Amino acid sequence: MNPYFTTRFAGDTEARNFLPSLCLRASVVKTSRTLHLGAAFLALISLCLQNTQASPKNVLLICIDDLRPELASFGASYVKSPNIDKLAAQGRPFLHHYVNAPSCGPSRFTLLTGRYGPAGNSALFERAGEMAKTPDAVPPSMPEWFRTHGYTTVSVGKVSHHPGGRGGADWSDDSKIEMPNAWDRHLMPVGEWQHPRGMMHGLANGEIRVKTGDMDVFQSVEGPDTIYPDGLIVNEALDQLGELAADKKKPFFLAVGIIKPHLPFGAPKKYLDLYEGVELPPIPHSEKPTGKTTWHGSGEYMKYNQWGKDPRKDATFATEVRRHYAACVSYADAQVGKIIAKLAATGADKNTVVILWGDHGWHLGEHSIWGKHSLFEESLHSPLIVYYPGIGKPGIKTDAVVETLDIFPTLCDLTDLPAPDFAQGISLSPQLSNPEATGHTALAYKSDANTLRTATHRITVHKGGEVELYGHTTDGSETLNIADQNPALVAELKQQLSEKLAKKEG
Ligand SMILES: [Ca+2]
């Protein structure tokens, strides 16, 4: 028996049995047949019916790959993201949500386990290896926590690092599971793309990445959504949503992972057409930083075919790349629209918590980086929206600094599940009740450096001891390292960073 479940099940059962036992006592009251007791009985039985009819809340988690918080609802009016914006208008947009690592695998690790983890992309597979060796030493993942508390858990698309959650050469090996015990079903349609690995970097009509240098860095082919991989993923998600909502006996935890706007930037042409005549603002702070930073040479991006061009040297081409990224955002946004519309069509929208989450940001030329993998704001800042029926102050944004780690305890709060005491985040219930509520610091890490974002500063400490300190109260560009001028603040923030890292290692 996993020690993380033993005591929690007992408490949970007790809590859920409380209302029915109250109703039983009410039926005893009825035997008195006095008028006032009869009225009290009717009132109480009505209350009991209301409560016993209230099903546990479902969870719909929408993960979007490499999505910058550059959306109309987050202040970028030139981006066409009407469906995400509608969700933001009905829920709580978190304007300062930070991921715990600037890469898919380790960022998704923290979302799905509620714990800080390794910095590499194989973080969840490493965890699966530990589970095989010493299962009792590994706390349950978020979907496993919901599953063992009565939920049907399903993932479709890229939720964990590998779309579909399997390893092996083509990411389709049923004997290599990325998150054991997590899902009742973990699905990844592949269509013409042959396998999940083909879908991950697929372009139109089944083109899969064989040699990266032969694959175009962007593309826009005329056709329906299903000529690119996310169209298939979302069609499967709609089917699953219909099936899950029809099951009135069990609540569901459905996670849907949309792959765009991850590289290569391919989307149906109609989404690129949305940007016809739209002027993108200039790239802010596009200069390569001086001094020790986490700047890198944009290796992931540069591997693709760019027809001999380079956005770092060619402003016209840089704009073209940015327009294709924006087209991919609009394509992903359209998929979100379909999922939310289906949720409403099933009626489950009245009883479902919706989370929309980006797994990290992406530099579109800021600091002369085209990609993620840095510890600058652009890599770590991503969209987070939380929605549930009856949320107070819908659409009011919060500036509280929060981190991905916080999502697991938040979802437990919103669904009345027991709080997972092994999870390391902090519930966002205060910000959901009151958008003015303050947040906390956000930790992020790479193998060779760690960073802490506060409401006013970012400190980055390299393994070699070098320190970057940036102010965020007047200028968010992170171009001026003020560490040398602020030794006392550096010492204080290094201490805070050490405390968070101790929690990570603990
Ligand atoms: Ca990603």
UniProtKB/TrEMBL annotation:
Transmembrane segment boundaries: none
Keyword Protease: no
Domain of life: Bacteria
Domain Sulfatase N-terminal: 57-416
GO molecular function: iduronate-2-sulfatase activity; metal ion binding
InterPro entries, A to Z: Alkaline_phosphatase_core_sf (IPR017850), IDS (IPR035874), Sulfatase_CS (IPR024607), Sulfatase_N (IPR000917)
CDD domains hit by this protein: iduronate-2-sulfatase
Cofactor(s) listed in the protein's UniProt record: Ca(2+)
GO cellular component terms listed in the entry, alphabetical order: cytoplasm
Keywords: Calcium, Hydrolase, Metal-binding, Signal
Entry's family note: Belongs to the sulfatase family.
Name the UniProt record assigns to this protein: Choline-sulfatase
Gene name, Swiss-Prot/TrEMBL: betC_41
